[in-house]
Amino acid sequence: MPSGVEWAFRFASETCRSPVAAVSRWKWLSGRKAAGCIPIYVPEEVLHAAGMLPVTIWGNEFPPSPYGGVPPFVCSVAAGVVSAIRSGNWGEIDAWIFPSTCDTFQNAFEALFPPEDGRSRFPFVFPATADTHGAAEYMLDRVEAFREWAGEVSGRAVSEGALERSIRVYNENRRIFALLEERMTESPGSFSGMEFLTLSRAGMILPKEGHTEILRAALSRQGDASGNVRAKMFVTGIMATPSVMEAMDAAGAAIVGNDLALGHRYYSGSPEEEGDMPLSLARRHLRRDPCSTLHGSVRPRIEEVLRNVARSGADRLLLLRMRQCEPEAGDIPDIASASRDRGIPFLCLDVDLHAEERASAKVRIEAFVEMGE
Amino acid sequence: MKGTMLFAGIDIGSLSTDVVLLDRKGKIAGSAIVATGASTKKACEEALSRALGEAGSAPSAIVFTVSTGYGREMAPSADLAVTEITCHARGARHLFPQARTVLDIGGQDSKVIRLTPDGKVADFAMNDKCAAGTGRFLEVMARTLEMDLEEMGPRSLLSRKTVAVSSMCTVFAESEVISLIASGTPPEDIARGIHLAIADRIAALAERVGMASPAVMTGGVAKNPGARRALEGKIGFPLLVPEDPQLAGALGAALIAREKSRAHH
């Protein structure tokens, strides 16, 4: 009989390994619909309140199909998702949400979504920048439209009460995830990079109530692994892949903080649980952590990252860049020089979901760890 | 030799496996360079055996071994695996204590390593998975030019005209070279163009980490005078080259082996 901790990791790993099976199981048990969310800024609470399962699709769930018809300049997240849709994979998804996280996402899905695919889709177009006058009003309008669409797709209108309950469920999940991150900061090595990635990613597939239980079980694990830690890293960027995490774990690098799109940036920021619920979700979006794709200036992001590096006690900054991610690429030289100016060793590692350079990533990470020795 | 203690560094690269054995005083007792071929294990054994033969010692004399290079984790007898970045930095700095930058162009990858004033790695950059800017690029080009690899460097120094060859992709560069041959461009000029393409690539890496003088060039390509001159032209100052640039990684590994063994005991 596995312990609660073992069960938690086993269940989360299985979910990450077979996300389609996890979604299929949920649909069979609940008899409800699943909505595919393209990363990363979809206000999922609306879907939850409509009784749907929001599933973040990262594009690495299936190998890219040669019939995907995706141009080579598209990043591997967008390429993977488009290829999966065009190849008929992800049949468990009943409806799609395409957020305008970046120009590539917005245009790739609009241009490449197969016209014969009859599934409903909602293009969630965010305000061009989060810090402009009128952005709140516009975002509120989009949240309301999204709420209406979710109600139509699910057949269950999204009431204020349901939205409030969903916000509470999500906020609780965020609170517990924050505890996981806190543990990793305060006790470096308490969770390996691979464990962190698994716990984080599983939460983007499973219903939040279940994920919260998994996180609670994982947090019940005691023990001190700090003796094996050779370097304390703050990881920023778009996403991490299992092979990057494995290389970090093997090299003795502990993640003590992150603002990964696949980690902290997905879970951070809680909407208010009282008042006007759609407004609360709109405000959350506008208060998001600085991100290359959402904010006009790179400066707030640099300052935030460096503040968090200091707060986490990290001795190195690792930036994971999604190959072909233009907004991120534009910010990297500034982040690199700001980090080096403050004496923080910096490494930028390219990530491609479908053409991983495992040996090359491994040597870079190991050398980065050795730098301080 | 009875009572001899040796510290081994094994650098398993894509093209060659290099071994350096240091004695207790840190002096090179033996070294060897063999082709890696298809079996890393066999190459390690052969290189070690040759280096031990040169040192006149038995395998039991080796008290600590550090492996490095892309095959570092496959070295059968290694006590510790350390990346080639750290080892090249260590080896180059040992040979040239004033060094502040190391440019290593190996068979499969190239890297630029910036050192702190006390010789530690401050920053580094490596080429991406493309073979452009590596020893493999030169090999492919030499084959296309029907020239021995060793001949390519000296021949390129005879060039009188600059021709452009793509620095971005080995496959594209190869077809460019074929076109240049077909148009009657002298092989010396093409060889120079190829070296300039490599230099462009390395200079771009160097820009990412920031070059500081003096700089040491290591790896097999450092033996090519044409590549060296092209690179010096790009970076704007002369490069220091060890007598055996290919052995710098293995030397660094052996130095670390000696240090770790002392700490261990």
Give structural attributes:
heterodimer; A: alpha/beta; Rossmann fold; four-stranded parallel β-sheet; 15 helices; B: alpha/beta; Nucleotidyltransferase, domain 5; five-stranded mixed β-sheet; 8 helices; 10 strands; 20% strand
Blueprint (SSEs and pairs):
The complex is a heterodimer of chains A (373) and B (265).
Chain A: H1 4-17, H2 19-30, E1 34-37, H3 45-49, E2 53-56, H4 76-86, E3 95-99, H5 103-112, E4 120-124, H6 135-154, H7 160-186, H8 193-202, H9 208-219, E5 231-237, H10 242-251, E6 253-260, H11 264-267, H12 277-286, H13 299-312, E7 316-322, H14 326-341, E8 346-351, H15 358-370
Parallel strand pairs in A: 1-2, 1-3, 3-4, 5-6, 5-7, 7-8
Chain B: E1 6-12, E2 16-22, E3 28-35, H1 40-55, E4 62-68, E5 80-81, H2 84-95, E6 101-105, E7 110-115, E8 121-126, H3 135-144, H4 149-156, H5 170-182, H6 187-209, E9 215-218, H7 225-235, E10 239-240, H8 248-264
Parallel strand pairs in B: 1-4, 4-5, 6-9, 9-10
Antiparallel strand pairs in B: 1-2, 2-3, 6-7, 7-8
Structure, described:
Chain A is of the alpha/beta class and 373 residues long. Chain A has a domain at 4-160: Rossmann fold. Chain A contains 15 helices and eight strands. In chain A, strand 3, helix 5 (103-112) and strand 4 form a beta-alpha-beta unit. The longest helix of chain A is centred in the middle third of the chain and has 27 residues, at 160-186. Chain A starts with a helix and ends with a helix. Chain B has 265 residues and is an alpha/beta fold. Chain B folds into two domains: 6-87 and 247-264, 2-Layer Sandwich (Nucleotidyltransferase, domain 5), CATH 3.30.420.40; 98-241, ATPase, nucleotide binding domain (Nucleotidyltransferase, domain 5, 2-Layer Sandwich). Chain B contains eight helices and ten strands. Chain B has a five-stranded mixed sheet. A five-stranded mixed sheet of chain B has the order 8-7-6-9-10, with helices on both faces. In chain B, helix 3 runs antiparallel to helix 6 and helix 4 packs across helix 6 (187-209). Chain B is globular, with a radius of gyration of 19 Å. The model of chain B has no long low-confidence stretch (mean pLDDT 90). Chains A and B meet through helix 15 of A and helix 2 and strand 8 of B.
